[in-house]
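The data are passed on as follows:
___
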Amino acid sequence: MAFLKASSPHGHAANSTNQFMRLVMLATLPGVAALTYFFGFGTLVNIAWACLVAISCEALVLAIRKRPIAFYLKDGSALVTAILLAIALPPYAPWWMILIGTAFAIIVCKQLYGGMGYNPFNPAMAAYVLLLISLPVQMTSWAAPVSLLHSPVPDLWQAFQLNFGLITPVDGLTMATPLDVMKQNNGLDMQELWAANGQLGAFGGLGWEWVNLGFLLGGLYLLYKKVFTWHAPVSMLAALALMSVIFYDGGSSNSGGSPLFHLFSGATMFAAFFIITDPITSAVSIRGRLIYGALIGLMVYIIRTWGNYPDAFAFSVLLMNFAAPFIDTVSQPRVYGHAARNKQ
């Protein structure tokens, strides 16, 4: 029998983690560009401040643990965590809220478990849930699309001042998200709801359709670069679409929204390609990834439609992080030769 000549499973390039992290950061650019175009410069300020806090917290904990600071900072994992959390937070979020969330993600959710590779929960999503439960008003104050603002759109310097409380926000700078509008719908069918709300676009949220397309483009780039496999994101999107097809009744007031609305509103594509594909906290077997992604999609629809939160990716991801070891246990592939031995 001929065997392929391949390196052992532990063989790897010293900078492979850094390369993967750089690819992830690069892939977020289309989605971040769309967020900036439709919702202003607040997201860029979020990212810059979160990255500074993340590097500082990582260096501080590494120094306390007497670990080589430069070596671990070079892997880029702290920056990726900061960027993902900053993208998930509302633009123009208060500086202290970003500080609390980022510090919690790096110090508590990552370093206290031993650093990258040891954390059982996605740090960015754990920090997001902490902020959402503790500061619901600030976390639900999402920026209005710039096309709906009655005042001039804040430039980059004004966005910085808004984030750090140096100027007072103007009226109408924030409004309900399209998922909030859908959840709070009282008696209007889908056609009437679209006519009555300017923040709803062609088939999803105004601007959110392009934001999701941007993160879809970045996700496809990561798939092309083989940063992760297709199993978890595709199964998540398929489960979410299937649930919305099953419960979409043609657009009555009881409808939870069309499949296109759920796929291209909120954080759907961002979560599918940048959150649930985290190799540390997700299932690792192929069958396990399919189950893991499908269960996240199922829970997202349930919470969006019948739960208390308009978007539910953070809660769904954390619950599946908790279940990932069990999913891997029950989805392990059969040992080679096992069936044949049982027949003897």
